[in-house]
Amino acid sequence: MPPPRTTMCMRITRITITQFMIIPTIMIITRTARMSITTAIPMLMTTNRSEPAATGSGMTEREAAALYRLMTWLSPSFPVGGFSYSSGIEWAVEAGDITDAATLRDWLDAMLAEGSGFCDGVFLAHAHRATEADDEAALRDIADLAAAFVPSRERQLETSAQGRAFVEIARAAWTCDALERTIAHCGGRTVYPVAVGLVSAAHDIPLAATLHAFLHALVSNWISAGSRLIPLGQTDSQRVLAALEPIVVVTAKRAASATLDDLGSAAFRADLASLRHETQYTRLFRS
Question: What percentage of the chain has pLDDT greater than the value 90?
Fold first, then answer.
């Protein structure tokens, strides 16, 4: 018994479309094939027209550009040399303060919420706002204060070198007139959090997203140093990062609403580690 008519039509449609795509120069086609092709072409055109909206995933063009740049600038692959610094973690491991995933998490919790993480977040937020307002005097004062706020020579080297590299690479790859004006306001003193704040503001990237991405990148770099020094496996490293997620969120909110009078560090042991690393006999990291 021959197959039902609907099944036959479906088979003809598949065959004729395939033939049309592979051998487009054939001129003699049946009436059935012509109808099949006429139906198929509008479907393909409709799919192509809807593709940009699907690719955007509901984000505007500006939001997509901001996300792309933050992911690039604060990625471990962005060449600011972050992999060569431990922010004193190397001495803490040698001293026995950090021995496993749990002690690393506790150490970084304090650094983030009560130490350099919070302070850097405050400097970033104020640099971002000063850039948006085009306030030259405020930006220069923030840049000078941030450069003077680090507790040790090695931390000064770390934040200054990373800030300088961040600005130079951002200028070279993402040209922006507003950024050139802002850099001139700083007088060349752009430590890392100030550099991230002014570059993101010059590119109209929102402060909240910038703060969260910056603190995530900071914690990730600390964990990377700890994983090499303890040493720590990849799974345990990710567990530490996951455990610090709520601390990153809370610290970003605090930093966004803090004034310069709220600046201050209570992570004394971390500051001491940064100072003692300068005379540590065997070192893998520059800080």
Answer: 68
